[in-house]
Specification:
By secondary structure, the protein is of the alpha/beta class. Helices cover 41% and strands 19% of the residues. The protein has 17 helices and 22 strands.
Length: 501
Protein backbone atom coordinates (compact mmCIF):
# COMPACT_ATOMS: atom_id res chain seq x y z
CA UNK A 1 0.00 0.00 0.00
CA UNK A 2 1.40 3.39 -0.96
CA UNK A 3 1.68 6.06 1.67
CA UNK A 4 -0.72 9.02 1.49
CA UNK A 5 0.54 12.25 -0.04
CA UNK A 6 2.03 14.89 2.20
CA UNK A 7 -0.69 17.27 3.40
CA UNK A 8 -0.74 20.93 2.52
CA UNK A 9 -0.20 23.48 5.28
CA UNK A 10 -3.75 24.75 4.96
CA UNK A 11 -5.59 21.43 5.09
CA UNK A 12 -4.69 19.17 7.98
CA UNK A 13 -6.40 16.68 10.23
CA UNK A 14 -4.06 15.20 12.72
CA UNK A 15 -3.45 11.58 13.60
CA UNK A 16 -1.29 10.46 16.49
CA UNK A 17 1.91 8.52 16.48
CA UNK A 18 4.85 8.22 18.88
CA UNK A 19 8.42 9.32 18.50
CA UNK A 20 11.39 7.27 19.64
CA UNK A 21 11.47 9.27 22.84
CA UNK A 22 7.94 8.16 23.67
CA UNK A 23 6.47 11.64 23.34
CA UNK A 24 3.21 12.03 21.41
CA UNK A 25 3.76 13.60 18.03
CA UNK A 26 1.24 14.88 15.53
CA UNK A 27 1.21 13.91 11.88
CA UNK A 28 -1.36 15.31 9.51
CA UNK A 29 -3.50 13.50 6.95
CA UNK A 30 -6.43 15.50 5.52
CA UNK A 31 -8.12 12.44 4.00
CA UNK A 32 -8.24 10.59 7.31
CA UNK A 33 -11.12 12.62 8.76
CA UNK A 34 -13.08 12.25 5.52
CA UNK A 35 -12.59 8.47 5.59
CA UNK A 36 -13.58 8.22 9.25
CA UNK A 37 -16.70 10.28 8.66
CA UNK A 38 -17.66 8.09 5.71
CA UNK A 39 -17.24 4.93 7.81
CA UNK A 40 -19.37 6.39 10.60
CA UNK A 41 -22.13 7.38 8.16
CA UNK A 42 -22.22 3.89 6.68
CA UNK A 43 -22.40 2.38 10.16
CA UNK A 44 -25.22 4.72 11.18
CA UNK A 45 -27.29 3.85 8.12
CA UNK A 46 -27.19 0.16 9.08
CA UNK A 47 -29.31 1.05 12.13
CA UNK A 48 -26.96 -0.66 14.59
CA UNK A 49 -27.03 2.30 17.02
CA UNK A 50 -30.83 2.39 17.27
CA UNK A 51 -31.33 -0.48 19.70
CA UNK A 52 -31.28 -0.10 23.46
CA UNK A 53 -29.02 -3.16 23.74
CA UNK A 54 -26.32 -1.57 21.57
CA UNK A 55 -26.44 1.75 23.42
CA UNK A 56 -26.23 0.08 26.83
CA UNK A 57 -23.26 -2.02 25.72
CA UNK A 58 -21.36 1.06 24.57
CA UNK A 59 -22.15 2.99 27.76
CA UNK A 60 -20.99 0.06 29.88
CA UNK A 61 -17.80 -0.04 27.79
CA UNK A 62 -17.12 3.61 28.64
CA UNK A 63 -17.40 2.82 32.36
CA UNK A 64 -15.15 -0.22 31.93
CA UNK A 65 -12.56 1.84 30.05
CA UNK A 66 -12.35 4.39 32.86
CA UNK A 67 -12.12 1.74 35.56
CA UNK A 68 -9.54 -0.44 33.85
CA UNK A 69 -7.31 2.47 32.81
CA UNK A 70 -7.60 4.82 35.76
CA UNK A 71 -3.83 4.76 36.30
CA UNK A 72 -3.22 5.55 32.63
CA UNK A 73 -5.49 8.59 32.78
CA UNK A 74 -3.82 9.76 36.00
CA UNK A 75 -0.42 9.41 34.34
CA UNK A 76 -1.47 11.18 31.12
CA UNK A 77 -3.04 14.15 32.90
CA UNK A 78 -0.07 14.29 35.25
CA UNK A 79 2.26 14.63 32.26
CA UNK A 80 0.05 17.14 30.45
CA UNK A 81 -1.06 19.37 33.33
CA UNK A 82 0.84 18.10 36.39
CA UNK A 83 -2.67 17.31 37.55
CA UNK A 84 -2.86 15.63 40.97
CA UNK A 85 -4.35 12.14 41.09
CA UNK A 86 -7.15 13.37 43.37
CA UNK A 87 -8.27 16.03 40.87
CA UNK A 88 -8.07 13.60 37.95
CA UNK A 89 -10.18 10.95 39.64
CA UNK A 90 -12.76 13.31 41.14
CA UNK A 91 -13.18 15.99 38.46
CA UNK A 92 -12.56 13.87 35.35
CA UNK A 93 -13.12 10.13 35.80
CA UNK A 94 -15.84 9.97 38.45
CA UNK A 95 -17.76 12.73 36.68
CA UNK A 96 -17.82 10.78 33.41
CA UNK A 97 -18.70 7.51 35.17
CA UNK A 98 -21.60 9.20 36.96
CA UNK A 99 -22.93 10.46 33.63
CA UNK A 100 -22.62 7.03 32.03
CA UNK A 101 -24.24 5.20 34.94
CA UNK A 102 -27.06 7.76 35.06
CA UNK A 103 -27.66 7.21 31.35
CA UNK A 104 -27.59 3.42 31.78
CA UNK A 105 -30.15 3.59 34.58
CA UNK A 106 -32.50 5.92 32.68
CA UNK A 107 -32.03 4.96 29.04
CA UNK A 108 -35.19 2.90 28.71
CA UNK A 109 -37.29 5.79 30.01
CA UNK A 110 -35.54 8.35 27.80
CA UNK A 111 -36.08 6.26 24.67
CA UNK A 112 -39.82 5.85 25.19
CA UNK A 113 -42.12 8.09 23.11
CA UNK A 114 -43.52 10.98 25.12
CA UNK A 115 -47.29 11.33 24.80
CA UNK A 116 -48.60 14.88 24.84
CA UNK A 117 -51.94 16.33 25.88
CA UNK A 118 -54.70 15.85 23.33
CA UNK A 119 -57.61 18.08 22.37
CA UNK A 120 -61.15 17.32 21.25
CA UNK A 121 -60.20 16.74 17.63
CA UNK A 122 -57.38 14.30 18.52
CA UNK A 123 -59.15 12.38 21.27
CA UNK A 124 -59.06 9.16 19.27
CA UNK A 125 -55.59 9.80 17.85
CA UNK A 126 -52.08 9.42 19.21
CA UNK A 127 -50.00 12.57 19.78
CA UNK A 128 -46.45 11.83 20.73
CA UNK A 129 -42.85 13.05 20.56
CA UNK A 130 -40.28 10.55 19.36
CA UNK A 131 -36.58 11.06 20.14
CA UNK A 132 -34.53 9.93 17.17
CA UNK A 133 -30.74 10.08 16.79
CA UNK A 134 -29.28 12.87 14.68
CA UNK A 135 -26.65 10.80 12.87
CA UNK A 136 -22.90 11.37 13.07
CA UNK A 137 -21.84 14.01 15.59
CA UNK A 138 -18.49 15.74 16.13
CA UNK A 139 -17.33 16.39 19.72
CA UNK A 140 -14.39 18.72 20.38
CA UNK A 141 -12.90 18.85 23.87
CA UNK A 142 -10.74 21.45 25.57
CA UNK A 143 -7.42 21.21 27.37
CA UNK A 144 -8.80 22.48 30.70
CA UNK A 145 -10.61 19.20 31.37
CA UNK A 146 -9.68 17.02 28.42
CA UNK A 147 -11.31 13.78 29.57
CA UNK A 148 -14.67 15.05 30.77
CA UNK A 149 -15.18 17.58 27.95
CA UNK A 150 -14.79 14.75 25.43
CA UNK A 151 -16.48 11.88 27.23
CA UNK A 152 -19.45 13.53 28.97
CA UNK A 153 -20.90 14.71 25.63
CA UNK A 154 -19.96 11.32 24.14
CA UNK A 155 -22.14 9.62 26.77
CA UNK A 156 -25.09 11.73 25.61
CA UNK A 157 -24.36 11.00 21.96
CA UNK A 158 -24.21 7.25 22.62
CA UNK A 159 -27.37 7.28 24.73
CA UNK A 160 -29.23 9.11 21.96
CA UNK A 161 -28.17 6.51 19.38
CA UNK A 162 -25.63 8.47 17.34
CA UNK A 163 -22.28 7.65 15.84
CA UNK A 164 -19.59 10.02 17.06
CA UNK A 165 -16.15 11.34 16.22
CA UNK A 166 -14.26 12.97 19.08
CA UNK A 167 -11.33 15.34 18.85
CA UNK A 168 -9.40 15.79 22.10
CA UNK A 169 -7.42 19.00 22.40
CA UNK A 170 -3.93 18.83 20.91
CA UNK A 171 -2.52 20.82 23.87
CA UNK A 172 -2.95 17.84 26.19
CA UNK A 173 -1.16 15.46 23.85
CA UNK A 174 -0.68 12.53 26.25
CA UNK A 175 -4.36 12.46 27.19
CA UNK A 176 -5.37 12.81 23.54
CA UNK A 177 -3.11 9.91 22.59
CA UNK A 178 -4.57 7.76 25.35
CA UNK A 179 -8.16 8.43 24.23
CA UNK A 180 -7.17 7.84 20.63
CA UNK A 181 -5.75 4.44 21.61
CA UNK A 182 -8.51 3.31 23.99
CA UNK A 183 -11.68 4.33 22.12
CA UNK A 184 -11.30 1.78 19.29
CA UNK A 185 -10.37 -0.89 21.83
CA UNK A 186 -13.55 -0.44 23.92
CA UNK A 187 -16.17 1.08 21.60
CA UNK A 188 -17.62 -0.08 18.30
CA UNK A 189 -14.89 0.50 15.70
CA UNK A 190 -17.27 1.59 12.95
CA UNK A 191 -19.47 3.92 14.98
CA UNK A 192 -16.98 5.71 17.24
CA UNK A 193 -13.66 7.26 16.26
CA UNK A 194 -11.02 9.58 17.65
CA UNK A 195 -9.09 12.13 15.63
CA UNK A 196 -6.97 15.10 16.57
CA UNK A 197 -7.75 18.26 14.66
CA UNK A 198 -5.58 21.23 15.55
CA UNK A 199 -7.19 24.44 16.75
CA UNK A 200 -6.70 26.06 13.36
CA UNK A 201 -8.09 23.00 11.60
CA UNK A 202 -11.29 22.49 13.61
CA UNK A 203 -13.50 24.77 11.46
CA UNK A 204 -12.25 22.96 8.37
CA UNK A 205 -13.18 19.62 9.93
CA UNK A 206 -16.61 20.97 10.88
CA UNK A 207 -17.22 21.96 7.26
CA UNK A 208 -17.14 18.27 6.32
CA UNK A 209 -20.82 18.32 7.36
CA UNK A 210 -21.75 16.50 10.54
CA UNK A 211 -25.27 16.20 11.96
CA UNK A 212 -24.31 18.08 15.13
CA UNK A 213 -21.14 19.62 16.49
CA UNK A 214 -20.37 20.02 20.18
CA UNK A 215 -17.51 22.34 21.11
CA UNK A 216 -16.01 23.29 24.47
CA UNK A 217 -13.38 26.04 24.54
CA UNK A 218 -12.80 29.76 24.33
CA UNK A 219 -14.98 32.33 22.58
CA UNK A 220 -12.62 33.06 19.71
CA UNK A 221 -12.41 29.41 18.68
CA UNK A 222 -16.13 28.97 19.35
CA UNK A 223 -16.96 31.79 16.93
CA UNK A 224 -14.96 30.09 14.19
CA UNK A 225 -16.70 26.78 14.88
CA UNK A 226 -20.12 28.47 14.77
CA UNK A 227 -19.36 30.11 11.43
CA UNK A 228 -18.13 26.85 9.94
CA UNK A 229 -21.20 24.98 11.22
CA UNK A 230 -23.54 27.67 9.90
CA UNK A 231 -22.07 27.33 6.40
CA UNK A 232 -23.47 23.78 6.22
CA UNK A 233 -26.56 24.43 8.41
CA UNK A 234 -25.13 22.13 11.08
CA UNK A 235 -26.63 22.60 14.56
CA UNK A 236 -24.04 23.37 17.22
CA UNK A 237 -23.68 23.29 20.97
CA UNK A 238 -21.03 25.70 22.26
CA UNK A 239 -19.74 25.74 25.84
CA UNK A 240 -17.52 28.82 25.94
CA UNK A 241 -15.36 30.52 28.52
CA UNK A 242 -15.73 34.07 29.79
CA UNK A 243 -15.44 36.19 32.91
CA UNK A 244 -17.38 34.48 35.70
CA UNK A 245 -18.11 37.02 38.46
CA UNK A 246 -18.23 36.14 42.15
CA UNK A 247 -20.01 38.57 44.49
CA UNK A 248 -19.07 38.32 48.18
CA UNK A 249 -21.66 40.00 50.39
CA UNK A 250 -20.95 41.75 53.68
CA UNK A 251 -23.10 39.15 55.38
CA UNK A 252 -21.43 35.79 54.83
CA UNK A 253 -19.12 33.31 56.53
CA UNK A 254 -15.76 34.68 55.35
CA UNK A 255 -13.78 31.59 56.30
CA UNK A 256 -16.03 29.15 54.42
CA UNK A 257 -16.40 31.57 51.52
CA UNK A 258 -12.63 31.88 51.15
CA UNK A 259 -12.14 28.12 51.23
CA UNK A 260 -14.72 27.44 48.54
CA UNK A 261 -13.53 30.26 46.27
CA UNK A 262 -9.87 29.28 46.64
CA UNK A 263 -10.61 25.64 45.86
CA UNK A 264 -12.62 26.56 42.76
CA UNK A 265 -10.18 29.19 41.42
CA UNK A 266 -6.89 27.31 41.98
CA UNK A 267 -8.09 23.79 41.19
CA UNK A 268 -6.11 22.55 38.14
CA UNK A 269 -3.88 25.62 38.52
CA UNK A 270 -6.80 27.86 37.60
CA UNK A 271 -7.33 26.28 34.18
CA UNK A 272 -11.10 26.06 34.15
CA UNK A 273 -14.08 27.42 32.23
CA UNK A 274 -16.30 27.48 35.31
CA UNK A 275 -14.07 28.86 38.08
CA UNK A 276 -14.74 32.33 39.53
CA UNK A 277 -12.77 34.82 37.39
CA UNK A 278 -12.96 37.81 39.67
CA UNK A 279 -14.39 38.80 43.04
CA UNK A 280 -16.66 41.76 43.70
CA UNK A 281 -16.84 42.70 47.38
CA UNK A 282 -17.49 45.68 49.62
CA UNK A 283 -14.46 47.78 50.54
CA UNK A 284 -14.87 46.83 54.21
CA UNK A 285 -14.90 43.11 53.35
CA UNK A 286 -11.77 43.05 51.17
CA UNK A 287 -9.03 42.98 53.87
CA UNK A 288 -10.67 40.12 55.76
CA UNK A 289 -11.42 38.19 52.58
CA UNK A 290 -7.89 38.54 51.18
CA UNK A 291 -6.40 37.44 54.52
CA UNK A 292 -8.76 34.45 54.63
CA UNK A 293 -7.81 33.52 51.06
CA UNK A 294 -4.14 33.76 51.97
CA UNK A 295 -4.67 31.41 54.90
CA UNK A 296 -6.53 28.96 52.66
CA UNK A 297 -3.69 28.88 50.14
CA UNK A 298 -1.22 28.17 52.93
CA UNK A 299 -3.48 25.38 54.18
CA UNK A 300 -4.03 23.92 50.69
CA UNK A 301 -0.53 24.16 49.20
CA UNK A 302 1.89 25.04 52.00
CA UNK A 303 4.38 27.90 52.09
CA UNK A 304 5.75 26.97 48.64
CA UNK A 305 3.02 25.73 46.27
CA UNK A 306 5.71 24.76 43.74
CA UNK A 307 6.63 21.88 46.05
CA UNK A 308 3.03 20.82 46.64
CA UNK A 309 1.81 17.57 45.09
CA UNK A 310 -1.68 19.09 45.06
CA UNK A 311 -0.88 21.94 42.68
CA UNK A 312 -0.71 21.81 38.89
CA UNK A 313 1.11 23.62 36.08
CA UNK A 314 0.18 25.58 32.97
CA UNK A 315 -0.56 23.35 29.99
CA UNK A 316 1.99 25.04 27.71
CA UNK A 317 4.26 28.08 27.40
CA UNK A 318 1.72 30.03 25.36
CA UNK A 319 -0.86 29.92 28.17
CA UNK A 320 1.91 30.48 30.73
CA UNK A 321 3.24 33.59 28.99
CA UNK A 322 -0.21 35.05 28.43
CA UNK A 323 -1.22 34.58 32.08
CA UNK A 324 2.09 35.92 33.40
CA UNK A 325 1.99 39.02 31.19
CA UNK A 326 -1.58 39.89 32.15
CA UNK A 327 -0.79 39.29 35.83
CA UNK A 328 2.13 41.71 35.78
CA UNK A 329 0.09 44.45 34.10
CA UNK A 330 -2.92 44.35 36.44
CA UNK A 331 -3.51 45.60 39.95
CA UNK A 332 -1.20 44.81 42.84
CA UNK A 333 -0.05 41.37 43.95
CA UNK A 334 -1.41 40.71 47.46
CA UNK A 335 -0.54 36.99 47.55
CA UNK A 336 1.70 34.87 45.31
CA UNK A 337 2.93 36.23 41.99
CA UNK A 338 5.99 33.97 41.66
CA UNK A 339 6.59 32.39 38.26
CA UNK A 340 9.05 29.86 36.83
CA UNK A 341 9.04 29.51 33.05
CA UNK A 342 11.06 26.28 32.97
CA UNK A 343 8.30 24.51 34.91
CA UNK A 344 5.38 26.51 33.46
CA UNK A 345 4.68 27.38 37.10
CA UNK A 346 2.64 30.33 38.30
CA UNK A 347 1.96 30.55 42.02
CA UNK A 348 -1.63 30.95 43.24
CA UNK A 349 -2.02 34.71 43.01
CA UNK A 350 -4.49 37.20 44.43
CA UNK A 351 -4.58 40.72 43.01
CA UNK A 352 -6.01 43.81 44.71
CA UNK A 353 -6.41 47.34 43.42
CA UNK A 354 -7.77 45.97 40.15
CA UNK A 355 -9.95 48.19 37.95
CA UNK A 356 -12.33 47.37 35.11
CA UNK A 357 -9.81 48.70 32.58
CA UNK A 358 -6.96 46.42 33.68
CA UNK A 359 -5.88 43.76 31.14
CA UNK A 360 -6.97 40.93 33.41
CA UNK A 361 -10.55 42.23 33.27
CA UNK A 362 -10.50 42.56 29.49
CA UNK A 363 -9.35 39.05 28.57
CA UNK A 364 -10.24 35.47 29.41
CA UNK A 365 -7.71 34.11 31.89
CA UNK A 366 -7.12 30.38 32.29
CA UNK A 367 -4.62 30.51 35.11
CA UNK A 368 -4.20 30.74 38.90
CA UNK A 369 -4.89 34.47 39.24
CA UNK A 370 -7.83 35.92 41.18
CA UNK A 371 -8.49 39.68 40.95
CA UNK A 372 -10.45 41.33 43.78
CA UNK A 373 -12.47 44.42 42.89
CA UNK A 374 -14.32 46.56 45.42
CA UNK A 375 -17.84 47.96 45.10
CA UNK A 376 -19.90 50.18 47.38
CA UNK A 377 -23.04 48.06 47.35
CA UNK A 378 -24.85 45.18 45.70
CA UNK A 379 -26.48 47.42 43.10
CA UNK A 380 -23.05 48.50 41.88
CA UNK A 381 -21.98 44.85 41.64
CA UNK A 382 -25.04 43.94 39.61
CA UNK A 383 -24.48 46.91 37.29
CA UNK A 384 -20.85 45.90 36.74
CA UNK A 385 -21.81 42.30 35.97
CA UNK A 386 -24.48 43.41 33.52
CA UNK A 387 -22.02 45.68 31.69
CA UNK A 388 -20.03 42.62 30.65
CA UNK A 389 -20.96 39.87 28.20
CA UNK A 390 -23.22 37.22 29.70
CA UNK A 391 -20.96 34.78 31.60
CA UNK A 392 -21.07 31.02 31.83
CA UNK A 393 -21.48 31.23 35.63
CA UNK A 394 -22.43 33.77 38.28
CA UNK A 395 -21.53 33.11 41.92
CA UNK A 396 -22.72 34.83 45.08
CA UNK A 397 -21.77 34.25 48.71
CA UNK A 398 -24.24 35.61 51.23
CA UNK A 399 -26.30 34.55 54.22
CA UNK A 400 -29.07 36.89 53.06
CA UNK A 401 -31.60 35.11 50.84
CA UNK A 402 -32.79 38.44 49.40
CA UNK A 403 -29.28 39.23 48.17
CA UNK A 404 -29.05 35.81 46.53
CA UNK A 405 -32.48 36.22 44.95
CA UNK A 406 -31.61 39.62 43.50
CA UNK A 407 -28.32 38.44 41.98
CA UNK A 408 -30.09 35.42 40.52
CA UNK A 409 -32.98 37.40 39.00
CA UNK A 410 -31.19 40.61 37.98
CA UNK A 411 -28.22 39.07 36.17
CA UNK A 412 -28.17 36.71 33.19
CA UNK A 413 -25.74 33.79 32.92
CA UNK A 414 -25.49 30.22 31.76
CA UNK A 415 -25.66 28.98 35.37
CA UNK A 416 -25.90 30.33 38.89
CA UNK A 417 -24.67 29.09 42.26
CA UNK A 418 -24.92 30.56 45.73
CA UNK A 419 -22.47 29.87 48.57
CA UNK A 420 -20.37 27.49 46.50
CA UNK A 421 -18.67 27.35 43.11
CA UNK A 422 -18.40 24.97 40.13
CA UNK A 423 -20.75 22.29 41.53
CA UNK A 424 -23.75 23.43 39.47
CA UNK A 425 -21.76 22.57 36.33
CA UNK A 426 -21.21 18.95 37.41
CA UNK A 427 -24.68 17.71 38.36
CA UNK A 428 -26.38 15.21 36.05
CA UNK A 429 -29.82 16.56 36.97
CA UNK A 430 -29.06 20.15 35.95
CA UNK A 431 -28.62 21.35 32.36
CA UNK A 432 -25.34 23.17 31.92
CA UNK A 433 -24.49 25.55 29.10
CA UNK A 434 -24.00 29.16 28.15
CA UNK A 435 -26.12 32.07 27.02
CA UNK A 436 -25.16 34.87 24.67
CA UNK A 437 -21.37 35.14 24.40
CA UNK A 438 -20.86 32.18 26.75
CA UNK A 439 -22.39 29.72 24.31
CA UNK A 440 -25.56 28.00 23.23
CA UNK A 441 -27.20 24.72 24.11
CA UNK A 442 -26.76 22.60 27.23
CA UNK A 443 -25.87 19.10 28.37
CA UNK A 444 -25.61 16.66 31.31
CA UNK A 445 -27.99 13.79 32.04
CA UNK A 446 -31.27 13.87 30.13
CA UNK A 447 -30.24 17.19 28.59
CA UNK A 448 -27.31 15.50 26.83
CA UNK A 449 -29.71 12.91 25.43
CA UNK A 450 -32.00 15.68 24.15
CA UNK A 451 -29.09 17.68 22.71
CA UNK A 452 -28.10 14.76 20.48
CA UNK A 453 -31.68 13.81 19.58
CA UNK A 454 -34.26 15.19 17.20
CA UNK A 455 -37.62 15.41 18.98
CA UNK A 456 -39.95 14.41 16.18
CA UNK A 457 -43.61 15.43 16.46
CA UNK A 458 -45.88 12.54 15.51
CA UNK A 459 -49.66 12.53 15.04
CA UNK A 460 -51.14 9.07 14.36
CA UNK A 461 -54.67 9.47 12.97
CA UNK A 462 -57.35 7.29 11.55
CA UNK A 463 -59.81 8.14 8.78
CA UNK A 464 -62.93 8.43 10.91
CA UNK A 465 -64.96 11.61 11.46
CA UNK A 466 -64.55 12.82 7.90
CA UNK A 467 -68.10 14.12 8.30
CA UNK A 468 -66.62 16.86 10.50
CA UNK A 469 -63.20 17.49 8.98
CA UNK A 470 -64.69 17.98 5.49
CA UNK A 471 -65.33 21.63 6.50
CA UNK A 472 -61.67 22.50 5.79
CA UNK A 473 -61.76 21.41 2.15
CA UNK A 474 -62.40 23.59 -0.92
CA UNK A 475 -64.59 24.89 -2.35
CA UNK A 476 -64.63 27.27 0.60
CA UNK A 477 -68.16 28.23 1.73
CA UNK A 478 -69.16 31.09 4.03
CA UNK A 479 -71.18 28.64 6.11
CA UNK A 480 -68.11 26.46 6.67
CA UNK A 481 -66.00 29.49 7.62
CA UNK A 482 -68.66 30.55 10.13
CA UNK A 483 -68.59 27.11 11.70
CA UNK A 484 -64.77 27.15 11.84
CA UNK A 485 -64.77 30.61 13.41
CA UNK A 486 -67.37 29.54 15.97
CA UNK A 487 -65.32 26.45 16.82
CA UNK A 488 -62.18 28.54 17.29
CA UNK A 489 -63.94 30.85 19.78
CA UNK A 490 -65.00 27.82 21.81
CA UNK A 491 -61.46 26.45 21.81
CA UNK A 492 -59.59 29.60 22.81
CA UNK A 493 -59.61 28.48 26.42
CA UNK A 494 -58.69 24.95 25.48
CA UNK A 495 -55.63 23.34 23.91
CA UNK A 496 -55.87 24.31 20.28
CA UNK A 497 -56.85 27.02 17.86
CA UNK A 498 -59.57 25.20 15.94
CA UNK A 499 -60.70 21.85 17.26
CA UNK A 500 -62.86 21.16 14.25
CA UNK A 501 -59.77 20.66 12.07
Amino acid sequence: MTSPPSPSASRRVKALRRTRLGEPCLQTYPLECVAVLRRARVAFRTGRTITEVFRLAQLEAVVRMLEEHECDFVDALGRDLHKPMFETVVSELILVKNEALHAINNLKKWMQPQHVEKNLSTTLDECLVLSEPLGVVFIMGTWCSPVQTCLVPLVGAIAAGNCAIISPCECTAHTAELLHRLIPFYLDNECFHGILAGTIDLPEAVELKFDHVFFTGNREEGSRIARAAASTLTPATLILGGKNPCYVDQHCDISTTAQRIAWARFHNAGQSLVAPDYILCHTDVQPRLVQALKCCLMQFYGSDPRESRSYGRMVNLEIFNHTRDVLWRSGKVAVGGQVMEAEKYIAPTILTGVTESDPIMQQDIFGPVLPVLTVNNMEEAIALINKQEKPLCVYVYSSNSKVISRLMSETSSGSFCSNDSVLQSLMVALPFGGVGASGMGSYHGRNSFDTFSHRKSCLLRGTRFECVTYLRYPPYEDRNLSLMTWASTLSQKSQGWCQIL
